[in-house]
Amino acid sequence: AQKVTQAQTEISVVEKEDVTLDCVYETRDTTYYLFWYKQPPSGELVFLIRRNSFDEQNEISGRYSWNFQKSTSSFNFTITASQVVDSAVYFCALASGGGADGLTFGKGTHLIIQP
Amino acid sequence: EPEVTQTPSHQVTQMGQEVILRCVPISNHLYFYWYRQILGQKVEFLVSFYNNEISEKSEIFDDQFSVERPDGSNFTLKIRSTKLEDSAMYFCATLGVQETQYFGPGTRLLVL
User: With an 8 Å Cβ cutoff, is B58 touching chain A?
Assistant: First the structure.
């Protein structure tokens, strides 16, 4: 069985602070894919990043960075110099096997950036 | 950019009524997915559809649900006899590049 745990239900920081969202996953598959999606107040699900289990390279995209560590089954997401527009619910998700399987989502972290 | 659109954006129905939610891909896709998100909760996988057949389904996807691609373009989710607990946001997704699922804007279903 697969599982994604986002232990932080809600995080509130002041604008310009750095913030890290945690994601821990469980799977028995050796090949799997990890994702982060953003859900702003408007409700849509916006894809942010995808990682496969063979690629542990960390990634940086502007103010966003992701730290994938297989040893701890974690795929954490850091926002540097947060902005009010970053306020959203962020979901970590897992797909096993061929990558075309249904995603298993975590419960999400509601990030509030205060001006 | 979204690769699918969904209609309607909102639907209100009476308990026991049938509803059909539609997903329209912007370009050719082979894989389709339906998910639901009960208000304030996580996104849950319902079903995946490949080559006009169900590929995988979750425990939530019971006999009251069905999917089809009637005209080779639109992908529909039918709920035969809605219950109060079916009230949720329903998302359609397609499989894009690098095996990434891209979600439509969702249909908010309210069952009264």
Answer: yes
